[in-house]
Amino acid sequence: xxxxxxxxxxxxxxxxxxxxxxxxxxxxxxxxxxxxxxxxxxxxxxxxxxxxxxxxxxxxxxxxxxxxxxxxxxxxxxxxxxxxxxxxxxxxxxxxxxxxxxxxxxxxxxxxxxxxxxxxxxxxxxxxxxxxxxxxxxxxxxxxxxxxxxxxxxxxxxxxxxxxxxxxxxxxxxxxxxxxxxxxxxxxxxxxxxxxxxxxxxxxxxxxxxxxxxxxxxxxxxxxxxxxxxxxxxxxxxxxxxxxxxxxxxxxxxxxxxxxxxxxxxxxxxxxxxxxxxxxxxxxxxxxxxxxxxxxxxxxxxxxxxxxxxxxxxxxxxxxxxxxxxxxxxxxxxxxxxxxxxxxxxxxxxxxxxxxxxxxxxxxxxxxxxxxxxxxxxxxxxxxxxxxxxxxxxxxxxxxxxxxxxxxxxxxxxxxxxxxxxxxxxxxxxxxxxxxxxxxxxxxxxxxxxxxxxxxxxxxxxxxxxxxxxxxxxxxxxxxxxxxxxxxxxxxxxxxxxxxxxxxxxxxxxxxxxxxxxxxxxxxxxxxxxxxxxxxxxxxxxxxxxxxxxxxxxxxxxxxxxxxxxxxxxxxxxxxxxxx
Length: 580
Hints:
77% of the residues lie in helices and 0% in strands. The N terminus is likely disordered. The chain is mainly alpha-helical and 580 residues long.
């Protein structure tokens, strides 16, 4: 699918002139390059509208041309449409531009400083566009070339630029799952900071600390992710670009979620969504970024239905901006796939979840290497869905086929996670736990127990005894012991532990408690403890009544249309609550 169009209606006379130029493009092509940047852009966009992608591609693959159109910031969405359409069409414009820029930087290393500085300005614009558009490898190549130029001059202005390029390089490496290079990139940035501070220059660390928090978050070092996100929030100033402010607040909200500081997370993420919509608009990619984080928060506070709604809104925006085979679209599909899987778990209708998981995998496989880490989470989601479909399948042959496909996906995901993070990591532990559930469905009970015990051990080491992730794995092991291994005493203790953690984190109406309560009813039936059966039937009835009495969930998107506090007040309230 080619990139979608925005509504774009220039003045009719002007539009007629643009159309005339495009209709005679073979004769006017050379003259077009002497026109002002905005007019050039409109001509190129008309080529896109007419589907003349080969001609457009030949223009955009020339760095001299693209360096002009990338300056049209007020038409950024339209440029994303053109660019993605070319990529979908098979024109490797991202590679052409990054390779050309990198070569030019190597050629001008002996040139005048002014020539190199002009290249740095272009590199910042070009690399930032590649990062925004999701072409992270190309953005990385551009930023690395810029850093090499910065290192040729030892003065304050080049140190400041070097710091900015390091921060942006850390972002694209985080986004492209190159976590092993993240620490070195951060240390390189700190090297520039040290030089600047020695000469008495103040440096704002907000974005650098936030990107480092994102690195710690990706590596499941959640204490560090939270600590650095707080440090980043303390660096927020009124003169910072709004994009930086929003990104810092977003990252801090995610760190709060994984630390189960839900009130703090809610305060931050709702404000980020509101500010992004007010400042950038409801069709902007930055607004969709905040919606994904809002969906992540809602999913983790057991507001599953609204998380699906918000994730769908984020996907709609990303599809309207980027269109087809784009990594931003793939990530939104994956997030929606998982939330839909959780939402549809009790009904057993997984068609939507399966569609989005498969679409995410299809896009990632098309644009990234087959061993890329981003595939791990998408494959994991699809495997979970296939397992549930298999369990409900009445055709034994089809059931076995689905379970074995799920196994292949889980094993592939586990291998990718171990290669990226090692064994002692939360993401790796999740894959072990998923394999445990799958092996239980495949009646391979000893292997299932082994996987669950591994998952619990890793999660307890990293997250502590009372974390939600620990409760999930404990509940799964209880189910194995109860339903398939007749180890009722152990199962009982595990169920009670899972219930205790769930109630402590989410309250008595937490949706996940149902499975533990039903498990205990089955367990006590099996051992003939009728009093306990009656007790937990009563508890389950009370839980159902509590769920029925719950206040109907309001529209999560309407809930963020207004904000009573300024950004400064929100951050101040957060910092006060984090110290209490």
